[in-house]
Write a structure and sequence with these properties.
This protein is of the alpha/beta class. The chain folds into two domains: 68 residues, Hypothetical PUA domain-like, domain 1 (Ribosomal Protein L25, Chain P); 162 residues, 3-Layer(aba) Sandwich (Alpha/beta knot), CATH 3.40.1280.10. Helix content is 29%, strand content 23%. The chain has six helices and twelve strands. It starts with a strand and ends with a helix. The relative contact order is 0.15.
Length: 242
């Protein structure tokens, strides 16, 4: 069954309208008709089966025809602190991390920022990220949208971390290799990765001052968008999700 995203599905009223983007997807891409049934999720774990009651070129109205289903929140979560990198690579990274099952994105502007980003409006890149995670959740069946936070720098990003989570930063100059045995059986985990040029000295100082474990991933130097995907896959596998 086709899935769409709408916050209104879990509200008291059982009839509501989709926004223009979701409506356009149903009408133009999926070519659904009136009285078709679809699954609607709100990004907070709630979902329901709905019927299309009206549609035209710009608008789609729905009526909830099933009880609202509530999914259980994951006990262990995976958060990533990732930098802004070249736009195409960044979008690819967000998409794949969402598919793997990352629960929270903390995005920071690195000190060694790529020249192609210096004059860009980074908030627009984050807005596109929101669209990407919605699309991924529609496709993979996840009813919880990952949280996305934009920060100005590494210092602000680290201020959003939870002390009760295991925290790892990954750097090519680290002395210790990252292994499964470092992951607690119950704790949530946060990983921190750097841009194409790596962490700056100031960023590494901040990471050390926050007592975050610094590890490396082996002899092969991974691309900025590949490293968090690789580590997230390892951690999710340890969580029993892959």
């Amino acid at each position: 069954m086709h899935r769409v995203y709408c916050k209104s599905v879990s509200k008291t009223e059982n009839q509501f309208s989709l926004d223009s983007k979701q409506s356009h997807h149903l009408i133009k891409a999926l070519r659904l008709k009136q009285k078709s049934s679809i699954e609607v999720f709100d990004g907070d774990g709630y979902s329901a089966i709905c019927e299309i009651t009206f549609l035209n070129n710009k608008k789609c109205d729905l009526k909830r025809i099933s009880k609202i289903k509530k999914d259980k929140k994951p006990e262990r979560t995976l958060s990533v602190v990732v930098p802004f990198i070249k736009v195409n690579n960044f979008n690819y990274m967000i998409q794949k991390l969402s598919e793997i099952g990352v629960n929270k994105f903390i995005i920071y502007k690195p000190d060694l920022c790529d020249q192609s980003l210096l004059k860009k409006d980074l908030s627009k890149i984050v807005k596109k990220s929101t669209e990407i995670v919605i699309s991924v959740c529609k496709q993979c069946g996840n009813n919880f949208l990952p949280l996305i936070f934009q920060t100005k720098n590494m210092k602000n990003a680290l201020s959003l971390l939870n002390d009760d989570e295991e925290q790892f930063a990954f750097d090519t100059d680290a002395e210790k290799y990252f292994g499964y045995d470092e992951l607690d059986n119950k704790s949530s985990t946060t990983i921190i990765t750097g841009p194409e040029s790596g962490f700056s000295d100031e960023e590494l100082k901040l990471i050390n001052n926050n007592k975050i474990k610094i590890r490396y991933l082996g002899q092969n130097i991974l691309r900025a968008e590949t490293a968090p995907i690789f580590v997230s896959s390892i951690i999710r596998n340890q969580f029993g999700r892959i």
